Each structure stands twice: as structure tokens, then as C-alpha cells.
Amino acid sequence: MNPYKFSIIIPTLNEANTIQVCLLALQVLRAHAEIIVVDGGSGDDTLLLATPYTDKILQSNQGRATQMNHGAKHATGEIFLFLHADTELPEHALTLIEQSITPEQQWGRFDIQLRSESLVPTRRVGMQWQRAALPNLLMLKIIAFMMNWRSRLTGIATGDQVLFVTKTAFTAVGGYPNIALMEDIALSRALKKLSSPVCLSAKVISSARRWQQHGIHKTIVLMWSLRLRYYLGADPTFLAELYRKGTLWKH
């Protein structure tokens, strides 16, 4: 048995299309981890679908930082793992974390691979699919590569890369700051003052739905713009509104 007890904390908001698949994949880990879903006020069947597959269902005010802090407050594990509902952990994820966490490095993240459900070939489209889809698939691979490379270079992790952190370190930095966006960057900054992150090369598989909803190239520009504005001191609440709308400017 793993010497650590993990708490897998999943913030949700209208994730009925993804939550059941996410939780089913985690059932094999329940001997070593508790599964906590923290809902921010879903108007769909998220909670109904999640209930049979979790140890705790919690509700809080909306906002990933708020929801994840609420989950951590009720978690009993020694290591917290913050997982998005559209993301799949790699095989042996908990063992990899257990082997990498040390008193000198108490937090980290995984590499990421982006998955596109809408770019799946069918018999009807054949070669037409390949010509249309391959450029987008290549772009998603490049985006994931750049995310992983940038994270190793800067020591900053994104939520999509699945942050994990000891309860001791999470408590020491005061958890996620209560901001509407960029909470993962802010937490990484705080944790870097304690230690450098563990950067695991094993890949989590995360949905590319955000990138495709507003267009891959447009989303690249948007995300870099939001990140730059955050570093320059822009209000995260304002940035969150732009993020939700998928636009560079408030209309």
C-alpha cells in the first residue's frame, strides 16, 4: 500500500458530459485516494452522475480557486491532486507522484497531451478527414510541447497539467489565492518560494475543447495575451470575463 493517502479534488461546473468518464477512470485508485468533487452550482446532471463514484460531494461558490480550496479544506490526504473533469491521469500516476515527492520538492505537475474528440476519423470522410484534421492535430501537439517546455523553463504549472502538492506545502502558502483566473500561476509562484516543482514526463490527457471552441490560432493569441496582462497587473476578474467569452477585448 502507498505510504501516502491522496486526495483527488475535482472542481466542476456543468460537466455532465465529462464527469462520469473522469470518475470511472479513477475508481482503481480508491484504495489509495479519496475522490472529492466540488461543484460550483451546476445546472445540469453533474452531481447526479458524480455521486456514485465519489467519496465526498461538496458545493461551494463558483470559481476554480474557491472550489479547490473548499475541497482541500475537507480533504484528509497527505497529498492533494487537483484534477479537471476533462482530464485523464497517466497510468500509475499516484506511484509516480509518491516516488518523486521529497522534503526538498513538495509539489509538481505532469506533462500534458491534448486530445480532440472532434478530430476522430470516420469511414465516410476517409482521406478528406486526414487532409482537414492533420494540421489541427499537429497544432495541438505543438501547443502541448510548448506548454511542457515553458513549464520546465519557468517552474510555473497550469491546472491542465494536474498540479499535485503536499498538504503541508499547500497550507504553508495559504492555498489558492481567491482570484477569478490565473490561480494556477499564482499558486505555482507561491510554491516556488518553497521549492522547485517536480516535472513528471508522464502525460495527462486533457480535452482540447477550449482550443477548438474559439479556434486554435485565436485561442493561442488569447491565452498569451491574458498571461501577459496578468503579469503586468491586470485584474483577474476582468481577464476571466475575456477568457469566458474567448475575446481579447471587452465589448
Based on the model shown, name its key terms.
43% helix; 10 helices; Spore Coat Polysaccharide Biosynthesis Protein SpsA, Chain A
Task: Explain how this protein is built.
43% of the residues lie in helices and 18% in strands. It is α/β, with parallel strands linked by helices and 251 residues long. It has one domain: Spore Coat Polysaccharide Biosynthesis Protein SpsA, Chain A. The chain has an eight-stranded mixed beta sheet. Helix 9 runs antiparallel to helix 10 (236-245).
How do the strands and helices of this protein lay out in sequence?
Elements (H helix, E strand, L loop, with lengths): L5 E7 L6 H8 L6 E7 L6 H5 L5 E4 L4 H10 L5 E4 L4 E2 L4 H8 L6 E9 L10 H29 L9 E3 H6 L10 H10 L5 E10 L1 H5 L2 H16 L4 H10 L6
Parallel strand pairs: 1-2, 1-4, 2-3, 6-8
Antiparallel strand pairs: 4-7, 5-8, 6-7
| Percent of residues in beta strands | 15-25%
- Radius of gyration, CA atoms, in whole angstroms: 18 Å
Strand order of the largest sheet: 3-2-1-4-7-6-8-5
CATH architecture: Alpha-Beta Complex
What is the total domain count?
Answer: 1
- End-to-end distance: 54 Å
Helical stretch count?
Answer: 10
Which structural category fits the helices and strands? alpha/beta
CATH homologous superfamily placement:
Spore Coat Polysaccharide Biosynthesis Protein SpsA, Chain A
CATH topology: Spore Coat Polysaccharide Biosynthesis Protein SpsA, Chain A
Q: What does the average pLDDT come to? A: 90
DSSP, total strands: 8
Listing every helix as H and every strand as E from the N terminus to the C terminus, the arrangement reads: EHEHEHEEHEHEHHEHHH
CATH class identity: Alpha Beta
Poorly predicted runs are 119-132
